[in-house]
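Aim 2 progress. For U-box-domain-containing protein, the working sequence is reproduced below.
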Amino acid sequence: MAGQDTAADPAKALECKEKGNKCFQAGDYHGAEELYSKAISYDPTNPLLYTNRTLALLKLHRFPLAITLSQQCISLSPPPSISLKAHFQLAQAQIALHHPSEALESAKIAHSLCVEEVIVGGKGANNIGPITELVLRCKKELWELREEERLRSRPSLLNELVAGLERDREAYISVLRAEGKGKDVEIESVKERYKGKIGELRRTFELAGVNGEEGKRRKVPDWCLDDITFSVMLDPVVTKTGQSYDRSSIMEHLKRSPTDPLTREPLRVEDLRPNLALKAACEEFLEENGWAVDW
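Predicted structure tokens for this construct:
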């Protein structure tokens, strides 16, 4: 870790951090990253410095190092608001490197910490929208990755099944010849029969593509959609009137107007309750239909 050969000096670390902030605000991400790195060398146990440097690294697209810094920050067991930021940054770097499974786990932790911040009224509550978007992006990319693997395996499976039928055909013909029944007409009959089986198998696979999951008209069920943004819900909460919204969208609405979107009666964040059954249903739908993120 940085700072092993530098005497600890929190005051100098703060000075470097402030200079780094000015560079960052001016768009000088290289300068900011160097100053944040220097700050860490003076105070390697301050987790906030790691999130500052990681933010600069994300701007510079230096994603592997951003992952390392985020993990170092998390290992320091920072307070919830900083841990939230570190997991959020870690997920951003992981998804940028096309590691959707790892990114989704990190984003879920960030989202969980953000919900806790919402409950206690912490600063992290402001991140609920971007974190929700990131979780959905990770879910979509993970689904796309699995879908690509499934589609790649389909021709391989078809070829294996066809090869199996061809082996059965040749074995059958060998038996006929061994028993002295291998007349040309009988062998041709066997070949025609197996040709029909192979053709039927190929048609079955073709129909699976047209009438199966790929051929279905993609539609998101109404119960899965948020009535404010009309997007698929990730973390549904229910109001006093029994209407469910995604947590991020209803919170954005309450910032503008502390009223129920449906009845216009007074509504506070404290009045919202998790809709766990709907959340589980939405998660299952998204896992099987990752395309719905862009609905």
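The chain is about 65% helix and 5% strand. This observation will guide construct design in the next reporting period.
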